[in-house]
Amino acid sequence: MEGPSSRLSAAPDGALRLAARRDSGGEAETDLGRDMKTHFRVCRFIMETGVKLGMRSVPVATACVLYHRFFERVNVQAYEPYLVAMSCVYLAGKVEEQHIRTRDIINVSHRYFNSGSAPLECDKEFWELRDSVVQCELLILRQLNFHVSFEHPHQYLLHYLLSVKSLVNRHAWSRTPVAETSWALLRDCYHGAMCIRHTPQHIAIATLYLALNSYGAELAVGEKEWWQNIKEM
């Protein structure tokens, strides 16, 4: 996979110049399905990079939302997605008060595309890439009108899990990985635009619902559905 450093350049004055994406597929290059696959791969890059940087789940989620919000407003063909992703990781660290150094982001990204390679030297290429990450951060801020703080489903899912746990047998709960599956499904929601299309509450309840159905879990809670009961708890 082609890395970001080979697909961008920085102007001598520090202004950002993002290389146009290569036209390798004609009309297929602008196909919606192809763009969705691109966003899926780039968000997976954000998540894996976040893990290697020791980021918490919420900052990683914020980085993904920033990425999707940005490309909701601009054409994916006009900007290098992986550079945007690196800048989103950098910005998300600031927003969620888990600051990540640009040097660490660049080195982790470099190793992501060049497995087993040594860290980049602090040469001209490194500083140009660093400037591009910072300038792209400003571009993202302007495109989003500086609205970069988001409410995530995590707190709702935690509340719903605790509520559902109180409705089932303790031994049955321990034998069924409903919680782990719910969190995994929640992470998957950030690969695509679902995370910006629906409310945090709906995403949280949907992931829990799917996890429960996956294991055939049944909750006997009377006349109301279980999600109506936990909403009132």
From TrEMBL:
The keyword Cell inner membrane does not apply. GO terms for molecular function: cyclin-dependent protein serine/threonine kinase regulator activity. SUPFAM superfamilies: Cyclin-like (SSF47954). The keyword Disulfide bond does not apply. It holds the Pfam family Cyclin_N. SMART domains: CYCLIN. InterPro entries: Cyclin-like_dom, Cyclin-like_sf, Cyclin-Q_first_cyclin_box, Cyclin-Q_second_cyclin_box, Cyclin/Ssn8, Cyclin_N. PANTHER family: CYCLIN. This is Cyclin-Q. It comes from Amphiprion ocellaris. The gene is CCNQ.
